[in-house]
Amino acid sequence: xxxxxxxxxxxxxxxxxxxxxxxxxxxxxxxxxxxxxxxxxxxxxxxxxxxxxxxxxxxxxxxxxxxxxxxxxxxxxxxxxxxxxxxxxxxxxxxxxxxxxxxxxxxxxxxxxxxxxxxxxxxxxxxxxxxxxxxxxxxxxxxxxxxxxxxxxxxxxxxxxxxxxxxxxxxxxxxxxxxxxxxxxxxxxxxxxxxxxxxxxxxxxxxxxxxxxxxxxxxxxxxxxxxxxxxxxxxxxxxxxxxxxxxxxxxxx
Amino acid sequence: xxxxxxxxxxxxxxxxxxxxxxxxxxxxxxxxxxxxxxxxxxxxxxxxxxxxxxxxxxxxxxxxxxxxxxxxxxxxxxxxxxxxxxxxxxxxxxxxxxxxxxxxxxxxxxxxxxxxxxxxxxxxxxxxxxxxxxxxxxxxxxxxxxxxxxxxxxxxxxxxxxxxxxxxxxx
Lengths: 253, 171
Fold this sequence. Notes:
The structure holds 2 protein chains of 2 kinds.
Chain A: H1 11-18, H2 24-36, H3 38-58, E1 70-72, H4 80-93, H5 106-124, E2 133-134, H6 138-149, E3 164-173, E4 176-184, E5 190-197, E6 207-212, E7 215-222, E8 225-231, H7 235-252
Antiparallel strand pairs in A: 1-6, 2-3, 3-4, 4-5, 5-8, 6-7, 7-8
Chain B: H1 3-9, H2 12-23, H3 26-42, H4 53-72, H5 91-97, H6 102-107, H7 111-122, H8 127-134, H9 138-161, H10 163-170
Helix pairs in contact in B: 2-3, 3-4, 4-8, 7-8, 7-9, 8-9
């Protein structure tokens, strides 16, 4: 009886040969066939060349190095938990830093991210006077900050995130004033929210992430304002906090 | 990092590579990867332990891709339609790089042929896995693969005829 594989070689075999889908017996038959059929041999060579070209073109994506900032698509608050989980994955894979929609330019790094992280380091570790106005008097804090920032600003209530408001302060940030609100977790770790006017702002921009001096910074722009949430909390938790901050400021506006 | 995350993370680079080649658009490719990861985290309990996680992730990515097409109306509603070249592909980049850029050549393939070719030739999935990922019959994998490769052979031929390349080989 004839073996089913003894049928004549056709184009399916050529593909299967290139893709390693043949058993040893059929593979030998194809090789014998190719030796006597240069047109098919050329075709097989071309198929292999296509594979090589694909790898040459796209393998660099495997190890692409991430630029500084990242944007996470965040269409609504409900997706935030998922975004946080994905952010966690991307962070550990080292890919999160990879920009989606073009990282914001240098001014945002210089005007928002760096001073925000610096202010966090300076004041969150200050044992005596971490804030100028304590959070106990929310009304005074809000009034004072709003006056000096020339816009209505209220310290977000983050108790839903397990954060207690310690208070806030104003600080000079290059040519503008910035406001810093400071919070504390139940076990005493500090998270700060930093707000200042940004000329290069884009309305409703995505969340961006950046690691600055060992701190996680999530930041975004809305209208003319830039916002940053800074802390040493795990990024997946901090982005949840950042989402709550964003919602709080959006509700106000 | 939990076991689940550790398992998924190792496949991210390949998901990105495939998405990039499939879409020829950095932003959309990255969106697709992130949406796929979100889905994978949501549905991880559906993954059958011991089965091929990579194939499962590619399946999620494919389904996400089809959903995105429907939602955005950017692409044909039915995956099996021949949609021809992707209008989103950067026309300038394609013409500038001429026929020598295989990325541009890929974008001239109907998307379902492109997917098969990439899963087999770039990602090294078997025909059976490819059929499962795309939800098509193995015979269809074979015919799409054949059409895709024959079209790209034409492209290789054109590239060979390209004066710039000829000049190079003369040197």
